[in-house]
Amino acid sequence: MNRAIKSRLSTSEMNYFPDEVIEHIFDFIASHRDRNSISLVNKSWHKIERYSRHQVFIGNCYAISPERLIRRFPCLRSLTLKGKPHFADFNLVPHEWGGFLHPWIDALAKGRVGLEELRLKRMVVSDESLELLSRSFVSFKSLVLVSCDGFTTDGLASVAANCRHLRELDLQENEIDDHRGQWLNCFPDTCTTLVSLNFACLKGETNLAALERLVARSPNLKSLKVNRAVPLEALTRLMSCAPQLVDLGVGCYENEPEPESFAKLMAAIKKCTLLRSLSGFSEVAPVCLTAFYPICENLTSLNLSYAAELQGNHLIEFVQFCKRVQRLWILDSIGDKGLEIVASSCKELQELRVFPSDPHDEEDNNTAVTEVGLVAISAGCPKLHSILYFCKQMTNEALITVARNCPNFIRFRLCILEPNKPDPITSQSLDEGFGAIVQACKGLRRLSVSGLLTDKVFLYIGMYAEQLEMLSIAFAGDTDKGMLYVLNGCKKLRKLEIRDSPFGNAALLADVGKYETMRSLWMSSCEVTLGGCKRLARNAPWLNVEIINENESGRMERNEEDEREKVDRLYLYRTVVGTRRDAPPCVTIL
Amino acid sequence: MENSNSYSPYSSSSVDSTKPSPSESSVNLSLSLTFPSTSSQRETSQDWPPIKPRLRDTLKSLCLRQRRYNTALFVKVYMEGVPIGRKLDLSTFSGYESLLENLSHMFDTSVICGNRDRKHHVLTYQDKDGDWMMVGDIPWDMFLETVRRLKITRPERC
Predict the structure, then answer these.
(1) In chain A, which among 485-514 make CB contacts under 8 A with chain B?
(2) Range with the lowest mean pLDDT among A33-37, A128-132, A240-244?
(3) Is the torsion defined by CA of B15, B18, B22, B28 positive or negative?
(4) Residue ranges of region Disordered (chain B) (predicted)?
(5) Is A568 helix (H, G, I), strand (E, B) or coil?
(6) What is the sign, positive or negative, of the torsion defined by CA atoms of A161, A162, A163, A165?
(7) What is the dihedral of CA A85, A88, A92, A98, to 10 degrees?
(8) Contacts of A16 (CB under 8 A, 6+ apart)
(9) Residue of A nearest to B60 (CA)
(10) Between chains, do B95 and A308 touch, taking CB under 8 Å as contact?
(11) Does position A396 have pLDDT exceeding 50, yes or no?
């Protein structure tokens, strides 16, 4: 294209194209951030973008109201909603805090939105909402619930019964009240469209016959993750009628299988040549893992983080043959030696998560991992970009080595099990180690720090972590300066969560405008006081500043309201719709 | 929950002597970091380390199961016709297969479960009610809870 033509294709020129052409061009832009940008160019583009937007991501369900969302994007088909703050995963947020799905379903139904996909994280979902959902959206295809609660298998029964075109029902880590009903039976015989079914988190019994019939009539089923109530013989039968499976979540087999059953299982597994992802294995006899040897070379994703019964040697024996694995989630019982073997065998590894098998150090088994394992992985796996590592100890030297070996980290989350633990060799803080990580990893977007840390580590983070979007801090820092380094330095920071660290009002109030550029801030067991939070709320009316109290009656009893009293848990977030009206008594919104 | 190690966010009721004492650590004790758990009844913290509830529950139930099985389970084993018996720690076996293998080795003969057989030695056990039963009918876990002693019968007897 010559220069003269190029220079004429400015925005105003583009507007001479009919809307359909512009819309067609916009179709190629998928990222919601890019779409947000193009909608800001001019009024015409804003309008075209609005009507052609099918996928919307809402990182905080209280930042906007469902009505406003629907007004702006009436052609919405796919919605992602996140509710409770991240630390709710660790029991730091009361169940009733909020994040209710119902108002959204209600508004979407009333607005006659043609919803097809709904993805929720940390929301409170009720059976009524699921029923309303199942009846309101004729083309509904995909429901993904992650870390949600508030519903029962009755709600699942509604979805199964009424969503005629259901392709995906994916339940990850939810707290579901299992009524041991017949929800699987509620899928009509005409339902043959299932592609993905995951009910691994259900705690009750499963109607095996209904499950087998469902799988048998779902030729497109690619992903199946069953719960612990599905025994070995049943799994064998399921795999036999679904050899096209790509993703399998295995149930629970406490007892050693009979040789005959085992042989049948192995035969069924051998036929699943498309299998690439394996998970589950809670409470299994070690021999059951060996049944998967025939396909382990094909695996790209392996999640053994629930396989608490398997010992290190069993894990090592299996994982060393998974030469193509890209994503590996495992317990620390694999040990440093095991990680060294992973480093030499799994050259395609991109994401590693090592979880603690003994989180409170109650057993005397010394199988936790240390800096040795991490260094080995960083040296052996050139494609590694994401890590979550729970360990007994870490040294600055190791972190510096890791930073040198792996400058490509996007996510680096290190959790040393004992808070405030210094470098065991030098007895110093880990400031230098983490400093090396942020300096080397120029693309780092997510970071969690732990161990003994002073304000200095935050100076480094503020200075070097230019792409950082999410930072998690626990038991770290000395003074307000620490938090200020981060707030002033990290321009792209979106989420900051802090617990048990000595940051107070001075840091909180220094730059109120900063919070407009962020999604949210969480501070618990820090030094901020009620007075400080009140001042913040006054100066920033576009923020919701929430105080979560220890006990429900906390708000009522505080007649004196001592402004110097420290706030137990603070959660603030930007919003365009003001104070929410569904907060429970334990939450005070300033 | 008050504790002398006020900087240590989680603790059991006894102070662990292998952990660094306050004077060794360079932590500023005036921070007085509070015990993080929102429920003071629990001995160990429910919010540290930061793992999700499902993993926490899985590990807890494993811990309880292991504690049960970490206690040895020695039972007497007699071969019919042989006055001197042996003793066996059942907690070292993962199932009936490994038990039979071991017994076959120990008594240098083929020992099986279940079906009455004119040729093989069949394994039986005395349960906590005092009754003699065939080994292999109930799940392994349940078997461990009820078994009191083992007897390997001579082929003709059964």
Answers:
(1) 499-500, 502
(2) A33-37
(3) negative
(4) 1-52
(5) coil
(6) positive
(7) 70
(8) none
(9) A358
(10) no
(11) yes
Render A78-107 in DSSP notation, one character per residue: EEEEE-S-GGGGGT-S-GGG--BSHHHHHH
ipTM for this prediction: 0.87
Q: What is the pLDDT of residues A315-371, one digit of tens each?
A: 999 999 999 999 999 999 999 999 999 999 999 999 999 999 988 777 666 678 999
Q: List the structure tokens of A518.
A: 């962020």
Q: Which residue of A has its CA nearest to B70?
A: A363
Higher pLDDT, B128 or A166: A166
User: Contact B46/A91, CB-based, under 8 Å?
Assistant: yes
pLDDT of A163 strictly over 70: yes
**Is the Cβ of B105 closer than 8 Å to some Cβ of chain A?**
no
Non-local CB neighbours of A297 within 8 Å, separated by 6+ positions: A321, A322, A323, A324
- With tokens 């529950």, the residue in question is B57
First-to-final CA distance of chain A: 58
Phi-psi category of A63—alpha, beta or left, where left has phi over 0 and alpha has psi -120 to 50? alpha
Q: What does the pLDDT read at residue A491?
A: 97
Determine the average pLDDT of the residues in A387-400.
97
Rounded distance between C-alpha atoms, residue B149 and residue B146, angstroms: 10
Identify the closest residue of chain B to A499 by CA–CA distance. Answer: B36
- CB–CB contact B38 A500 (8 Å): no
Asked if residues B113 and B145 have their Cβ atoms less than 8 Å apart, the reply is no
Task: Give per-residue pLDDT as tens, B54-104.
Answer: 899 888 877 777 666 667 788 999 998 888 999 988 888 878 888 988 898
Whether residue A356 lies within 8 A of chain B, CB to CB, comes out as: yes
Per the CB < 8 Å rule, is B53 touching A417?
Answer: no
**Contact yes or no for A420 and B48 at CB 8 A:** no
CA atoms A235, A241, A243, A244: torsion sign = negative
> A233 is written with which tokens?
């013989």
pLDDT band of residue B21 (cuts 50, 70, 90) is very low
Classify A370 in phi/psi space as left (phi over 0), alpha (psi -120 to 50) or beta: beta
Dump pLDDT digits (tens) for A69-92.
999 999 999 999 999 999 999 999
Per residue in A474-526, pLDDT tens? 999 999 999 999 999 999 999 999 999 999 999 999 999 999 999 999 999 99
Mutate to test the interface with A, among B12, B42, B44, B59 (most CBs of A within 10 A): B59
Instruction: For Cα atoms A295, A299, A300, give the angle at the middle one, nearest 5 degrees.
Output: 170
Q: Is A390 on the interface with B (CB under 8 A)?
A: yes
Q: How confident is the model at residue A32 (pLDDT cuts 50, 70, 90)?
A: confident
Closest Cβ–Cβ partner in A357, A427, A502 for B31? A502
Instruction: For B18, name the nearest residue in chain A, comparing CA atoms only.
Output: A361
Q: Is B102 helix (H, G, I), strand (E, B) or coil?
A: helix
A308 touches chain B (CB under 8 A): yes
Minimal CA–CA distance to B32: which of B16, B9, B12? Answer: B9
- Which residue among B51, B54, B66 places its CB closest to the CB of A359? B51
Task: Tell me what the mean pLDDT of segment A59-71 comes to.
Answer: 96
